[in-house]
Amino acid sequence: MNIDFSEKRWKTIKQNYSRWWAGDLKRPLISVSLSGRTPTRSKPAEPYHHFNSYYGADFTVAHIVDWYEYQLEGTYFLGDGFPNVWPNYGPGVCAAYLGAQVESGSMEAPTTWFHPREIKEAKDLHLKVIPDNPWYLIMQNLYREMQARFGGMVQLSMTDLGGAMDIVSTFRPSERLVFDLYDCPEEVDRLSWEAHDAWWEVFHTFGKILDKNPGYTAWTPIFSEQPYYMLQCDFAYMIGPEMFEQFILPEITAMCKKIPNTFYHLDGAGQLPHLDMLLAIPELKGIQWVPGDGAPDITQWPEVHRKIRKAGKLVQIWAGGHSRYGWETLDVIADQLGSAEGLIMIGFGSIEKDEKTVLKLLDKYGC
To answer: Are residues 224 and 205 in the same domain?
Structure first.
């Protein structure tokens, strides 16, 4: 394997990210990955699909890792960027490990859905990990293959397990779960904590396999030497603050107490009513604000980022040549906040189109 990285750079990455998490880094983190490097290995013959579930639960994992290796060799990592691989089996794949049916999109419409094999009443539903579930086993095999191939030079990210209540909503599809909040709240609470326990079982199982990892990261590649995860609850978009406080907040708070470095994926304006409660969790380290399709872009929400900063939390933003947000996004938000400290910008692009702009940005912020 021939990737654009070294042990020396990993040492620097660990130092800078540790200082950033601790609030001691007096600059933002700017993590950039640019395509355009020539791989030394040949391009895999089989087509590539961003959702690994497309290949099925009995597909050879070596092919998937071949593609990861090819992509890593073709990438330059600039600033605070680092080589990482995120195995994508769809958002909330933990539901599959509990028995949900997996439906994969086509090559032209890449996505993954999870459905209950049978819709049961909440009182009759119990959520437990199925140890020999084929999707659970293939994820473990994929991690083993990647670790054998890459050793400790590539950070292997945690797959998108989803949030506890989102897992519950897979088995009690959202409209039913909304009624359950009124009709049988005690059952919803039970299911949420069953999903929480299952999530942790999976997290620990995968973590034991990844003993050569440099550290931790998730579907949002923020590096951490301590356990880290991007928490979420998309179901929270459908409920008000009172129900969020009753059904969602306790479980999110428990997660933050168990995982040293946590962010929350605040997705869409429907989640903004919950922001104050999230910011009041002492152990929550940061917020990723995503306004959603059709909404003004992230530079148009200064009041949101100011509230996050005022609460003493970190902020993650996306930008770059492959994003709807340009490289200037960091400057805009830094100006709105008065400084760029506590920010991390993760961006993607190409050497041909973006290198000069990125190098100027890195120089400006001392990266």
So the answer is: no
